């Protein structure tokens, strides 16, 4: 076996096509306890697109070579080199067949990449570079091959043997059996998958628009068979939607999804055989929250949509990751908007981007949507690639309009079907169809950071003018920034909140396309107006405008744009909170000022309870903290608590009636019912924050007789977060009731780790020692450490730093990818005041000295 090696930097500018292509792969995976033997036969052909060479290198990590043979001739040691994760062969002819036989040990694989075990089943994860842990292969997305895979295992323990494509042959040999699968579509090896296990199946069928019948098979552990209906319904909706919206049909006879408990990410789009984190596919009202249901719907759709945006047309190299991910996120967001409330969906998506991707853009890990370099590609499955990437596609959608955009995607899918391409190829199609010059627009892909758009207004006589200044702050390695194309959707609202005419044609909404650092626009408007800017969040920028409080109230009360209403509420909350943080306000006064505006929102809650809940939710402590440097987590925490308490009191009657009157008597799972539950949980939270004497009673009643997990968990959260009487008992009962349900127990862990306040560090320490805590299950690790990371007043303490860094090292020894993700929680290091910063820095440095390449890339960037 070869030895470990340090991370190296890979650069986009160094891209070279592979010297050889692999036309077909014949795999034989012989699974036995302890050791799995993988035999692969690769049909190699010199790449006509590459410079002529007779040398080829194949990736391979931790493979024990049993034998290598080239065109039937066994290679002796000395006839090949295998070091630093590379097998190099020289003197290759134009075409050749390479047969390798290697041993691997999936039972020992805790990193969960390549072939590994999860709760007694074997499964794979190959994106981005897991296939090299299974066999020798040019593990890069621009090598597309036809796969034929035979899986062999014990018949009794692994009755189910799956791989990509269609089963073509099977047989038995004593206690063992085998199945051969053929995938007719050439694919890069990151889309390879295999499963061997004993699983239950929910089966259904789907007839495509052109009349082909597809078998839909969803697999999970037997005990979870009753949790697959929602995923099945979501899958069928997604299949129909992609036909109607993009004209894309499914292309194989079988579509399979397998649920696994040990998984680093959400889910994986392997051709014909998706593998899902249980958290993204299992759903049942008794065990899954409403948010969980929505997540399942969107992730199932996301992976399904990849069949075209990712699989049929894939990425040339990993720098182009957003080509498939940004586009597919955009597709799943639009799907969810069509399935549910479009306005609520948009606000949720923007909220997520603004609260998670924007901070990434402001921190040490900031990178362009198409990065120029990386050490470990696993670290670049980021919010920037996914969510900002989706916003860039969305801007193109709006710039072209739905009809032209569809023509452009048709062209993209037709032209590049079966190929590995680039982000530029995608934009080329937009440009070609629309005739627009997208040259400047392309900077969105190469320039990192969130642009700040400062807007000022001026009224002079009958002319209202708006001046826009854009500027992108420097990011690591990129100090000079160019102006971007920024579409600003806009309306001007009169005193009554009605949009006024913007020109003499009576136009009431328009899109300004900014291209320069500074631009001014004039409108023939004589009256006082409130600008409704960036409607629908028309570009991923930070918008600065010095709104007066009455203007924000107008927007919140009257704007028809859901995003602008939400953004106005956020501005009001932030202004109040900022004053409390800096000691310039009193919580009771702030609450009194906010109360009348919020009352209006509550009065209208009947129109759309989910939207009301979004408008009434305070920004998080993390978001508030990001506005104040140096970060003083206790001041942030106290300001947040004070305002919440004061609002709890000022609107006590409203919270009480929402808590009681929104109660349903029978369970419904539609959007309206979900919105009402969300609003009621929020109301109960405010009621408890205001120390209302009824809060505990209502929470306990709800906890004891819930209609579904959203109610049960909502009640538990209120009891625990507000330390109400009954909280301890409820935690005990909950754990007893749900001890067999891992996904529910994840919630139990995270409810406790997210209680704001310094003392939570002690509970987190205890949770890490709990018998149900398992360092090898990413979901469980995230449920505690992820929650702690989002809990700044607990995280930013001496004990918090010590516990976090110790835990980080423990995770890193088992699973470097997860450690690196969790390590990102330290990204605000440079914002801490110097005492805290020094203490944390020393601890992080200690971990970094012994870290895996994955974790080390993240920590080194943070430590600077
Ligand atoms: N490609 C997957 C998705 O977004 C994510 C993923 C990446 C899963 C890497 C596993 C490993 O759909
Ligand atoms: Zn994806």
Sum up the structure in keywords:
864 residues; alpha+beta; 41% helix; 21% strand; globular; binds phenylalanine; binds zinc ion
For the sheet with most strands, the description reads: 8 strands, mixed
Q: For the CA atoms, what is the radius of gyration?
A: 28 Å
Query: What is the overall number of helices?
Result: 27
- Percent of residues in beta strands: 15-25%
Look at the helices and sheets and give the structural class. alpha+beta
Helix content: 40-55%
Shape: globular
**Which blocks of ≥5 consecutive residues have pLDDT under 50?**
1-5
Ions, cofactors and other ligands present here are:
phenylalanine, zinc ion
- Overall pLDDT level: 97
- The overall strand count is 31
End-to-end Cα distance, whole Å, is 34 Å
The main sheet orders its strands as 6-5-9-3-2-12-15-14
Notes on the protein architecture:
By secondary structure, the protein is of the alpha+beta class. It is built from 27 helices and 31 strands. An eight-stranded mixed beta sheet has the order 6-5-9-3-2-12-15-14, with no helix packed on it. Strands 17-18-19-21-20 form a five-stranded mixed beta sheet, with helices on one face. Strand 14 (166-173) and strand 15 (176-187) form a beta hairpin. The longest helix is centred in the middle third of the chain and has 21 residues, at 342-362. The model is unreliable at 1-5 (pLDDT under 50). Residues 302, 306, 325, 328 line the site of zinc ion. Phenylalanine binds at residues 125, 127-128, 265, 267-269, 302-303, 306, 325, 381.
